[in-house]
Amino acid sequence: MNVLFFLTPKSEVAHLHDDWTLRQAIEKLEHSGYTAVPLIDRKGHYIGTVTEGDILWTLKKRYDTNLKTAESVSVLTVERRMNFHPVSINASMEDLVQMAMNQNFVPVIDDNKIFIGIVTRKDIIRFCYEGYLKSKKVQEE
């Protein structure tokens, strides 16, 4: 099975840019409804994933917790507690499942390390569940 089968393209993925401020990141998370989003540079390279918790702990440890201050703080100052590793577009299904066991989504990069989208754990579980149902139906016949 190919990674592209599961891919949600970058154009449909809420993400942050490395030149954004902390306030912009907070607002993006709020408006998207997600608790974790990819961080990419303007050339499209995947840098990492920023979570609500990462932002919360950064605000607590380093800054006065008001949004006015957050307007002048780079999103790159956010300490990420977890490293969301990306997979190559050529990754195997086993690699994809292994990564999704520890992450809500798996960032996907191309051969030039350009972020092209994500594969959600939900999509992988749905695929596995549908396969299970098909095999169960065959066994019953």
Structure commentary:
The chain is an alpha/beta fold. It has a single domain (3-140), classed as Roll (CBS-domain). 38% of the residues lie in helices and 20% in strands. It has five helices and seven strands. The chain has helices at residues 22-32, 52-62, 67-70, 93-100, 121-140; strands at residues 8-9, 16-17, 36-40, 46-51, 87-88, 105-109, 115-120. The longest helix is centred in the C-terminal third of the chain and has 20 residues, at 121-140. 24% of the residues are buried. The mean pLDDT is 89.
Distance N to C terminus: 26 Å
Shape: elongated
Helical fraction equals 25-40%
Question: What name goes with the CATH superfamily?
Answer: CBS-domain
Instruction: Give the domain tally.
Output: 1
Just name the CATH architecture. Answer: Roll
Order of helices and strands: EEHEEHHEHEEH
Which characteristics define this entry?
141 residues; alpha/beta; CBS-domain; 4-stranded mixed sheet; 3-stranded mixed sheet; 7 strands; elongated
Summarize, please.
The protein is of the alpha/beta class and 141 residues long. The chain has one domain (3-140): CBS-domain (Roll), CATH 3.10.580. Helix content is 38%, strand content 20%.
Write the layout of secondary structure elements.
Elements: E1 8-9, E2 16-17, H1 22-32, E3 36-40, E4 46-51, H2 52-62, H3 67-70, E5 87-88, H4 93-100, E6 105-109, E7 115-120, H5 121-140
Parallel strand pairs: 2-3, 5-6
Antiparallel strand pairs: 1-7, 3-4, 6-7
